Amino acid sequence: MYSAQQIANQALGVYQRGVVECEKCRSPIVIRQPGMVSVEFCVPCPKCGHRGIYFKRMIYIEDAADRRVKPR
Fold first, then answer.
1. Nearest to 36 by CA among 51, 22, 16
2. Which residues contact 65 (CB under 8 A, 6 or more apart)?
3. With the C-alpha atoms ordered 30, 32, 38, 42, is the resulting torsion angle positive or negative?
4. Rounded distance, CA 40 to CA 17, Å?
5. Residue 55, in any domain of the structure
6. CB-hemisphere CA count at 13 Å for 7?
7. SS3 category, 51
8. Nearest residue to 20 (alpha-carbon basis) of 65, 54, 49, 63
9. Predicted TM-score (pTM) above 0.85
10. How many structural domains is the chain composed of?
11. Residue 71 covered by a domain
């Protein structure tokens, strides 16, 4: 179920994304659906290309503005 905060964020046009930090260059790696990843996952860094193994507990959630240009 969705919490009241998640419903309010969706009404405001805010979505949540997960972010992990690259082990090599410390740049952020964005994960679109953080709830769908397994306990241990592997993603490449968009900046340096390093492919690291990360754990679900390493993900921090941040709110991002809605990317839609036109309102629905």
1. 16
2. 13, 14
3. negative
4. 17
5. yes
6. 4
7. strand
8. 54
9. no
10. 1
11. no
> Would residue 32 count as lying in a domain?
yes
Cross-strand pairs, 31: 18
Helices (DSSP H) in the chain: which residue ranges? 4-12
Question: Measured on CA atoms in the order 59, 61, 62, 64, is the torsion positive or negative?
Answer: positive
The domain containing residue 25 runs over which residues?
Answer: 4-65
Angle at 1 between CA 54 and CA 66, to 5 degrees: 65
Q: How far is CA 28 from the centre of its chain?
A: 10
Has residue 8 got a pLDDT over 70? Answer: no
Residue 71 has pLDDT above 70, yes or no: no
N-term to C-term CA, the chain: 24
Structure tokens at 2: 């969705």
CA distance 59 to 39: 11
In a domain, residue 72? The reply is no
> What token pair was written down for 28?
């952020």
